[in-house]
From TrEMBL:
It comes from the Bacteria. Keywords: Glycosyltransferase, Transferase. This is Glycosyl transferase family 2. Residues 7-167 form the Glycosyltransferase 2-like domain. Belongs to the glycosyltransferase 2 family. Gene3D superfamilies: Spore Coat Polysaccharide Biosynthesis Protein SpsA, Chain A. GO terms for molecular function: glycosyltransferase activity.
Amino acid sequence: MERIDISVLMAVYKKDNPTFLRESLESIFSQTVEAAEVVLLEDGPLTDALYDVIKSFTMRYASLKVVPYPENRGLGKTLNDGLQLCKYDIIARMDADDICKPNRFEVEYNWLKTHKDYDLVGSWVDEFSDDKMVVKTKRKVPEQNEEIKRYAQYRCPVNHPTVMYRKAAVLAAGGYLTEYFPEDYFLWLRMLKNGSKFYNIQDSLLWFRYSEDTVGKRGGWKYACDEVRILEKMLKMGFIPFHVFCQSVVIRFTTRVMPLPIRKRLYKLIRKT
């Protein structure tokens, strides 16, 4: 099997599901190409079941590098440290509960190698809940860089667990700033503002695990206030005009503080557009 010079960066914490972690790691080590390095960050103490899963993979794969942290610090800070630990300039992100399609790394790596002026490539995702063969919806994102920049004024323009990016470009933009949430969205905005070019492959390269908790985590007063803070930064950066700022504040804040049942229905409608 061909070995490619990339680092895979992922984090796990105590509330992650051991079965989901196993499926996620299996998908990484069952790719059509072999990643030279897989950096797994343990964000604080884990359950025995999670430790057992990780041990079973470290015994089988020498490329798996496990980095334990004594306390939970949150995804953004943990990923920032992980960026520094990654040996290779091209990094593939992965979450502990999603599943890569077998050709994901090969497709994204070949795309970046042949488009050296681009700093990030992502893809669509197939959302599922229990069985990945039963796709609930396909989360689509725009293809070309200019489309992505326009889309980013209103919504996150890439699917985070699908991205493969150049480490240098991420660090040049300041990495994941933990005082702003969602950290990934704000990182993409800063990278685009820095002149980085993005591309989204118009096909699904990952199964994204959707649950009832997914929408619940993306709402509430704190989440709404965090999004308004990002919009304020976007306005100051010159990324959005004032009328878009006003429009987005009203729409996003209202959406995030809606009762959960209404948000779930709205989420389903948005994902179909």
